[in-house]
Amino acid sequence: MESAIAVAGLVKTFGDTRALDGLDLEVSTGEVHGFLGPNGSGKSTTIRVLLGLLRADAGRVRLLDGDPWRDAVALHRRLAYVPGDVTLWPGITGGEAIDLLGRLQGGLDPARRAELLDRFDLDPRKKARTYSKGNRQKVALVAALASDADLYVLDEPTSGLDPLMEALFQDEVRRLRAEGRTVLLSSHILAEAEALCDRVSIIRHGRTVQSGSLRELRHLTRTSMAVETARPVTGLADLPGVHDLRSDDGRVHFDVDTDALDAVVRHLGGFGVRSLTSTPPTLEELFLRHYGEDLTENGLVRTPEAVRS
Amino acid sequence: MSPRGPALAGTGTLLRFGLRRDRLRLPVWVAVATLLVVTQSISSQTLYDSPEDLAAYRASIGSNAATIALAGPPVGLDTVAGAVAFEISAFVVLVVALMAMSTTARHTRADEEAGRTELVRATRVGRHAPLLAAVLLSGMACVVTALGIGAAATATGLPARGSVLLGASVGAAGLVFTGVTAVVAQVTGSTRATYGIVGAVFGVAFVLRAVGDIEGNGLVWTSPIGWAQAVHPYSGDRVAPLVLCLVAGVTLFALAVALLDRRDLGAGLVAPRPGPATAPRGLHSPLGLALRLQRGALAGWAVGLTLLGLVYGALAESVETLFADNPEARAFLPDAASLVDAYLATTLAINALLAGAYAVSSVLRARGEEAAGRAEPVLSTATSRTAWLGSHATMALLGSAVLVVLSGAATGAVRAAATGDVGQLPRLTGAALAHLPAVWVLAGVALALSGLLPRAAAAVAWAAVAYVVVTTVFAESLDWPGWVDDLSPLAWTPTVPIETLRIAPLATLAVVAAALVTLALAGFRRRDLLVG
C-alpha cells in the first residue's frame, strides 16, 4: 500500500454551495501530511468525506485501500480521529468519554491513556459540561492517541491548546511518525505544519492549489533579506526577482525569489557587506502568496501593505 | 440602558431580541391553543344543540371518572359554554404550560448552557436582565394566548365574560409555569434536567387536581392547574383563583431572582461533583451509550407512569360510587362493572399516549445527538450507522414496552387488591400491552423521519403525537369524518377490556412499525450526517 489516502476530483455540494470543487489529495503511508487552507476552504468537509460521514457527489476517494463510504466500519477500526470542534456528552466525564470512544474504535492502551492524561494535565473525573474548549480537545486527543491505528486524522487539533500543550502535541505526532503511522493534520496554524509535516497540500475554495514537500514549495517563495553595507547599494531594484525594496540608515530590506538568490548575493558583494540576515520563507508567506489578494478582498487577512495604508 | 438600575440594564433590548428569535414559534403556540378552543366550541355547539342532548351528556360525564380525571371539575355542564370549558381547558392549560416552559427555559438555561448568555452578559447587560426578559417574553405569550382564547370563544358565540375568564385562567396557569421554570432553571445546571423537573411538576399538579376533582375534596387547591380551573368560566366566573395564580407567578419569579444572585454564571445551585475517571464496563457499545444517555429520562417516565397507573387503579372505585350516586347515568348507561371497564379502557389508552410521547422523545434523542455533533465522533469509530440509530431505536421500543407494562401492572395490582381478584393483574397488564403496537408505530414514524427528513423530524414527529392525542381524546366529542380517526394507530387498537382482543389489527400495526424502522435505517445509511 503506497497511499494511505488517495482523493481525485472530489466534489461535494450543499444546496447551491460547492464546498469541494474537484479536490485532489494524496497522502503516502508513513508520512505526516499537512492539510492547509484558510477557514471555510473545505478542510473539514474533505475529512468528513474521508470518514464516510458525508457522501461524495463526484470523484474518487480511497482510504487505506477501501471506500470510506461503503467500508466505513472496517476502515474506522484502523483510524483515529480528532474533530475540529469537539462536542462531548454534558453529563459524562472526560475519562468515560475517552474509554467509550477508545472501546468503540477497538480498544485503547491503558498505559498510554494514563501517560497522556498525565502529560496533557487533564482531570478525567470532570463532567464534560464543565470542560473548556481546550480540555474537550484534550479528551479527543487522548482517546485518539491512546488507540492503535494506522491512520490518524486530526482536524485542527490544537486550536484550543496553549503553547505548552501544543509543544506536547508536536512531540506526540513525532512519536507517531517514528512508529511508522500516517497522520493527516489539518491546520491553519502554519508553524505547526512547518514543524511537523513531511508534505503539505494547500487548498482554497474546495480545490487543491499546491501539493508537495515543504522544500519543493519553498522554491516558489521568497527569502527576506536585510543587508548593511559600507557603501550605499545601487542597482538592486533593476535585478530580476527582487521585491519590496526599502532602505533606512544604510540598511536595505527586500524579498528575493529563490532562483535569483545567487545573482543578488554576487551584486551585494560589490558594496562591502557588513551584516546580512536572511529569513527563510515561512509557510505564512507561501499562504499570502497564494491567498493574499483574495483574503485582502474578503477582509479576512490583511497584508502588511494593507495594514500600513 | 434601563432606568431601573444596572441589574436590569438591557432588558428591553433582550426582550425585543427574544421576540425576534421566537417570531415563528410563539405564534404557532398561540394559534394551537386558540384553535383548540375554536374547534371545541363549534363542535360542542353542534353536538349538544338540544336540552336533551346536553342532559345526556351531563349524565354520562357526571359518572365518568376517567373524563373528570382527564378534563377537570364537572361544573357548569348545564350550558353548552360550560361543556366547552370542561372539555377543553385541561388541554389548553397543557399547551400553554408547555409553551411557558419551553420559552422560559430556552431563553434562560439553554442559552446559558450554550454559552450565549456569557456573550450577552459581557456587554452592557445587567445580571437580572436575561432572566427578566425571558420571563416577560413568556408572560407576554401567555397574555396574548389568554386574549386570543377570549376573543375566539366569544366570536364562536359563547358568553363574553366567561370567554375572557376562560382565556385568563389558561394564561394564569401559563404564568405559574413560567415562574416554576424560572426557578428550576436556576437550581439545575442542565437544560434537559430543567425540562424533566418542570414536566414532573406539571405531572404531579395534574394528578393532584385529578384526584381532587374526582373525590371532591380540597386537593385541587394544592395544584396550580386546579387554581386555573377553579375559575369555573361560564358558571361561577370566579376571579379570586386568578389572583392566586398571579401572586404565585410573581413570588416564583422573585425566588428565581434570589437564587440567581446566589449562583455563578453557567452553574446551577448544586456544584457538580467529580465523576468516575474510567468508564464502567457497560459503556462500551452504541447501546451502552444510548442507555446511559436515556436512562435518566426513562426512569423519570417509569416513575410517572407507574404512579399514574396506581392513581387510575385507585380511582376506579370512585367510578362505581359516582354511578350509584347518579340516577340519570343509570338511565343511559349499562351496569357498573362494564362502566369500570370502559373507564379502565380510557385510562389505558391515555397511558399508551404517554408511552408514545416517551418513545418519540427517545427516538428524537438520536437526531438531537446528531445535530449537536455528538454522533460524529461515535460514527468515526468502528460503529455502523445501523448500530448507532438502532441503539436509540431499541431504547425507544423496549423503553416504551417497559412503560406500558408498568402502568398496566400498577393499575392491575390496585384493582386486584380492591376486588380480591388476582386475575386483574394479568388481565390489565395484557390489556395495556395491546396498545404497544400502536405506540411502536408512533416511534417508527419518528424514526423514519429522523432517517429520511432529519431537519423536519422533531416538528413533524411531535405533530404526529399531537394528532394521535387529539383524535384519541376527542374521538367522541368532535364530529370528524372516519378517515381522520383511521390515520391514528390507536384507532386500530381494540379498546380492551371492553372489546375483545383481536390479533389481526395488532399484527398489522406491528408490521407497519417494523417497516418504518427498516425505512429509517435504510434512509440513515444513505444520507449525509447533518450537524445543526
Question: How would you describe what is shown here?
Answer:
The complex is a heterodimer of chains A (309) and B (532). Chain A is of the alpha/beta class and 309 residues long. Chain A has two domains: 3-215, P-loop containing nucleotide triphosphate hydrolases (Rossmann fold); 222-280, ACT domain (Alpha-Beta Plaits, 2-Layer Sandwich), CATH 3.30.70.260. Chain A contains eleven helices and 13 strands. In chain A, the strands form three sheets. Chain A has a six-stranded mixed beta sheet with strand order 5-6-7-3-8-9, with helices on both faces. In chain A, strand 11 and strand 12 form a beta hairpin. The relative contact order of chain A is 0.13. By secondary structure, chain B is mainly α. Chain B has two domains: 1-270, no CATH class; 283-532, no CATH class. Chain B is globular and about 65 Å long. Chain B starts with 10 loop residues before the first helix and ends in a 6-residue tail after the last helix.
